[in-house]
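Appendix C reproduces, verbatim, an entry submitted by the partner laboratory led by Prof. M.T., so that reviewers can inspect both the input and the predicted structure.
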Amino acid sequence: MPPGTQTAATASPVPRRDTSHPFLRLAATLSRACGVASALMIVASILVTCQMIAVRFLLNGSTTWQTEFVIYMMIAATLIGLPYVQLLRGHVNVDLLPIALPRRLRLGLAFVTLGTAFAVIGLLMVYGVELWHVAWARNWTSDTVWRVPLSIPYLAMPVGFGLYLVQIAADLFAVASGRETPFGLSEDR
């Protein structure tokens, strides 16, 4: 089959990532672990939701912690799953501009977008650390019957954004070192 003519059956859903450098290998391993952790959090949320439905509607009982648990777990799954989505390039992507640009401008655009993403995610991580620390130092708890210490769910922000930052740094390094092409596009485009 000629290059570029893959069918849906032969196309790989997971893009090939270069892991020849130890940093790239570490970042990919961390990102995959985040994907597994995120999936497990979603499964736990589904199981707790089913348990909550059974308690409320089958046993006619009250639920005290389930709703809050599911909310915090889904938020944590989203934040912890960020690096895995970045690793797979699974985010919403509009290739129109990168495809239209010549190779050198495409490279420049990749540096601008990855650099901007690094700065924004770094800022979110810093504010996440600050919020987590305040919640921990002041022993904040939720205003529900469960009274979960908010430092526990808030920890997902600095951890998720920090690991996302590692994956973005790996992507930036891979493009800068020529190990990967900008936006994962082939050079002939």
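The two ends are 19 Å apart (CA to CA). Additional entries are available on request from the coordinating office.
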